Queue: 3 jobs
Job 1
Amino acid sequence: MDYLSATIWGGTMHRLTPMSVMILALLREGDMHPYERVRLMRARRDERLLAITNGTLYHTVGRLRRAGLIDEVGSDREGNRPERTTYSLTDAGRDALITWLRRELSIIDRPAEFRIALAEAHNLESADVIEALRLRRAVLDEAHVSHRDGLTGARHKNVPEQVLVEFERQEVLLDAELRWIDSLIDRLEAEEFPWGPSAFEYSDRYRAQRKAAQQ
């Protein structure tokens, strides 16, 4: 199973999956029914981050509701369409989302989860993002130094280059990510662009996207 982080609510252990995180993040934008969530995720090209299927989404919604992370707040039916149940994010769901994002932003050995955490990092305050990225940077720096020193030592011992190409690639990727993290932290600290869950709430693009998903 791809359960990633665990939090206890009311004595019940509930582990969030990437799909759980995406659903909780969407509900932080406002109450939605599952059909709207699917349309929004596809409009935002979230398939690049995880597989989106109706079955997985509805199953995840049920798990989140049973865990008390989301609540049913109403239902409606239009014409011959199936009845649609609208859900809302609970306080526990909000706390679970924030806890997961903080955790996954700082961890370096789960690249797929990090991409989702980064995509939803705007659900955190900028100070929280900076703190998590600084933790991540410290671990990445250690890994970068280790790879760099290992490559230098291997070459001094005349280890054939053909067996070092993967180590070389990883060292280059670590160096690039360190420079990217430094740049992002600098931009966040300088407040070069709006940040936070409400930063794009009233943009024309956001309103049009929500309207299209609700139809």
Job 2
Amino acid sequence: MTYETSETPQNPAAHAAAPAPVRHRMRWNKVPEVTLYFWVIKVLCTTVGETAADMLNEKLGLGLTGVSLLMSVLLAAVLVWQFRTTAYRPGVYWLAVALISVVGTLISDNLTDNMGVPLTTSTTVFAIVLAVVFVVWYRRERTLSIHSIDSLGRESFYWLAVLFTFALGTAAGDLVAERMALGYWVSALLFALAIAAVGVVHFALGFDAVWSFWIAYVLTRPLGASVGDYLSQPTADGGLGLGTVVTSVLFLAVILGLVVFLSVTRKDVAERDRVTLPAG
């Protein structure tokens, strides 16, 4: 399923009047093409974000704040690695996404559990912050497309947006689960249907590809979290009782297999880059 297809605006004349900055452009895009592989790994990463955050909080004995600081440091290190690459590298990119999923979950959990911030408030605040990121990103670059993440500025906006989509998805998902009390698998079905609806309005009704992509990106977070909770939580609480360790390891193994496959085949690299993309 591909929502994000092109950064070419509907009004070329307007685009010509306000061209995007071209300084410091790289030769290759720094993020993968939006393919079925992209969405599958993204949902798997969101599931790991939910179960790994719970597992680390339970096993490390550092408390929610300590785990949050540790994972934030690891994320910062991986993002430095990602920014230093000159093109899309599946291993580095998806490691950053997995860690940002964990950190986004922990940010929301800290606000709710440690600071007592209501989920309605955190959801609203994250939505506003994400909207501000998008506005500033568009005013500077004249596009929110992920097909041209080829400069330091665009990549910075991209990862900032990704972080707040995870935080927003966590808070909004918890809010829906708390208010509606649907249970894990029903919640997962609800969010899957919401993503499908976005696909329908995009493909059938021509809804903007860029906004379709970002809305679906936010919705995959509570979808993955619902799946993770259903697999890991005790049967008495409506789950399958696999536990956070087994669930996290299982999903990480699948992610690793897919990332290795994509590293070899380059099936998530744009056709224009596939021949010239450097191997190192």
Job 3
Amino acid sequence: MKRYVRKFLRNNGLGLAFGVAFFLALLGQAFAGHADFNNQLVAENLQPISVGDYMASSDFAVDVMENWQSEYLQFFLYVFLTVWLVQRGSPESKRTDRIGTESDEAQRVGRHAGSDAPRWAAAGGIRLKVYGSSLGLVMGSIFLLSWLAQSISGVAAYNEEQLRQLQAPMSWPDYIFSADFWSRTLQNWQSEFLAIASMAILSIYLRQRGSPESKPVGAAHTSTGVEG
């Protein structure tokens, strides 16, 4: 049993580590956000709320969703754009001679699929087309759903603030064209785009020994699509 647990932890260490980090960060955000939210309520001579009530509130939901949507937008764009765009010298890019969706033989699909290939990779027609774009489609769907959730929780949080200040609330269609919605959205998008560009370019010249996100330490700066 212990051997199985050790093997499971070793084989899934990356996912488990980030899963635990996600949970702890979300919990920390909840407590920090709760304290800040209650400070605002006290300043407005209103009754503070519990941590549980805060985590069920639109204020907490919009803060979480605006980060989720930007992260999944980052991965959605990265998955699709790297099919056609390359960055010479970056391990984050394909080789410059492999631009596009590549041949069935290179992708090991259809009649070129091996015995251990996923069933839909060996199939043809619509199943292969769907499976061949499934990663980007799922990332894009999660982005759109979380962006929608951000807009819904955002208008609720915005209107709560409006009502506390005895001002008129805003409809959802008006909110998605408002400065508040786009300020929340774009402040996250710009950071994600900068992070991707930085990783793609800095990894041309800098190394991290043993990481698949880096080229081998001794690889030439011009080596593209090579992982260490």
